Amino acid sequence: MSQIRLFVTTNETGAGLVLNGLSEMLGEAPYALATMEIDEKANVWEASVYLDESEEDILSGVFAGVLEGLFPDQTPSVEKEVIPEIDWIAKSLEGLKPVRAGRFLVHGSHDGDKVRPGDLAIEIDAGQAFGTGHHGTTMGCLEMIDAVLKSSKPLNALDLGTGTGVLAMAVRKLRHIPVLATDIDPVAVRVARWNARRNDIVGGIDFVTAPGFHHSAFKLYGPFDLIIANILARPLMKLAPGLKNTLAAGGTVILSGILAEQRYKVLAAYNAQGLCHVHTVWRDGWVTLLLKR
């Protein structure tokens, strides 16, 4: 079945609003959302949702409704692009360059020769789980992990929504402490476990499929001195009470997957749980937050 992209052309602020609106409207439905800069000088951006062609009628109506709510005076039109059938994993590898974030170098298997002495190298190929290091959220988390572990000595860590496992591996490469890495997607958990093995991490990280904080693994390994959650703003806000209850006294939290304009909503949710804001990293329209209990 053909894949299509429904998109709208606007400016950077508008694209962020559309992405946020679609995220709230679609909730946790499995649709890929994205923004893309088309013309830097003219401030032209696109906000997109990717879907199967059979879902076009439903999603185009949802998209149009979001736009009408955001731009009632001059509603932009929803455009459509048919996605050609391409091996996107192979294609993405062609353009993925090694990424440096703090002391980390995240690279694909095709760029192993780019590792320099002193690099904390993590090999990740594009695949079925999120987190190759190229997205602003992953970069922000890696930089924050590097900074936090330079100045503190947590006894354990939780990577909530582990994806490829890159953040759990980053913690383990810096500190030989037990790490629990969870995801609601069993495919992501399998991918993360495989990625750890290919990076010669054979112990110290327990990868678990866990849909919520009621899973026994959280009680078995917690409370946690360091919690990292690179998800999305809306689920992060819902998770605030459970995350706080899983965090050790004096513990540190790194949150990402948050658009810049969503920052204050997420902070408000965690401030209400007694967590204090320490620092923010800004990358490509996304923010990574450092909080302390």
UniProtKB/TrEMBL annotation:
It comes from the Bacteria. Its EC number is 2.1.1.-. Keywords: Cytoplasm, Methyltransferase, Ribonucleoprotein, Ribosomal protein, S-adenosyl-L-methionine, Transferase. Pfam families: PrmA. S-adenosyl-L-methionine binds at T138, G161, D183, N230. Gene3D superfamilies: Vaccinia Virus protein VP39 (3.40.50.150). Belongs to the methyltransferase superfamily. PrmA family. Methylates ribosomal protein L11. This is Ribosomal protein L11 methyltransferase. It comes from Martelella mediterranea.
